[in-house]
Give the backbone structure.
Amino acid sequence: MKLCAVVYKYWRQIIKPNVLALVAGVLSCGAALAQTNVQLYGSVDEGLDYVNNAGGQSLKAVNAGKRSPDRFGFRGTEDLGGGLNAFFKLETGFNSDLGNQANPNKFFNRYAQVGLSSTRFGTLTLGHMPDFAYDYVGVLNNSVPGISWSYSPGNLDNLANIFGMDNAIRYETPVMAGLQVGVMNGFGEDPSNFSRSRTYSVGFRYNNAALKLAGSYSMFHNRTADLKSIFGVTNVLGQSLAGAQFNADRFSTGVLGASYQVGIFVPHATITQVQLENARGEVIQRNLQAGVNTDLSGGRKTRILGLSTAHSTFEAITYNQYNAFLSQYLSPTVQIYCGAAYVHASGPGARATAFGYTPSSGRTQTLTRAGVQVQF
C-alpha cells in the first residue's frame, strides 16, 4: 500500500502535469519542420555449444542468440520542432540456426511501439514493449556483455526480454541530474474484469558516468509460468503441472541493480525477487548475481573478461552458478567470444538448469560456448 501511495503521489505531482503538457505541445506544433529518419538494425549471433548433461546426455550443437538474441527491426524518428519528436520501433526475434521466428504467434514480439518525446516534458509510448526490469535493470546483469545462460533460472524476473506487456501505455520523465523515472500500464481489455490480464510496471535508473543504479517493480495478472520444465516440480499451490503450466493470479517482480566503474574494472550486482500467487498462497524465487567485467585492452573496450557468480532459490531448491567469458571486439559491431559455466543444484528433486538450455538429469551441469556476433 505504501508503494501504491508513493506512485500515486508522484503521478499526481510530476507525471500527470508533464503528460498533459506533452499533449498540449503536440497540439500546438506545426508540420513545416518535420525531418524523418528511419533505420534498419539488428544482430545475428551463432556459436558452438557443449553441455555435459542435457537431460542425461552430452550435447554438441550450433545454437543462435546465446550471446545476444537474434533480432532485426525498424526504428524511426521525425523532428517536429521545438524539442518534440515522434518515433516508432518495430523489432522481431528469430533463430538464425533454424531460420524461424522466435515467437511464431507474434511477428514483432520484442517491440511494436509508437510515441512522442519532448526534451522538456518526457516521453509517452504506446504499444507492445518489455517492462522496466529489462529496459532499466537488464544491462547491469551478469549476462551483459556475457552469455545468456547467466540469467536466473527460467528468467522469471524478465531481465532478458522474453515477456512483453501488451496494450501498454508508458511515460518516462526527462533525465534530471542523471535520474529518470518511468511508469507503464498494460490494459487487459476485459470489459467484465478490469484486472484480468492487466500488467503494470514502475522503474527508475540513475547514471553519473561511473555509477549506474536501476530498479523496478512489475505486476502481471493471470500470467502462466512453466515451473515444471524449469524446476522439475509437478504440483504448486494445489495446481497439478502434469502437461500444464502454472497459472498465477498475480505474478510480481522486484529487481535492483548497480555497477560502478573503477579504472578498467566494472563490478556489478543485481538482486531480484519473483512472487507467484493464487488463492492457495504464494511461492517465491530469489536471485542474487554479482561479478566484475575487466577491460583487458586498457580502456579501449575491445577485449572484455567477465567473471561472475549467482545464487538462486525456489522453495527448498537452491542453485549456485559460476560463469566466465572473454569477448574480443574486432570492430564496434563485430565480436568473437567464448565462455564456460558450472551449475550446482541442491534440495529435494533438484536438477541443475541454466537459462535457455535443457536441464540436467542430475545436480550439476557444465556448459561451454564459442561464437561470433555481428550487429548492424
The helical segments are 2-28, 132-137, 227-231. The mean pLDDT is 93.
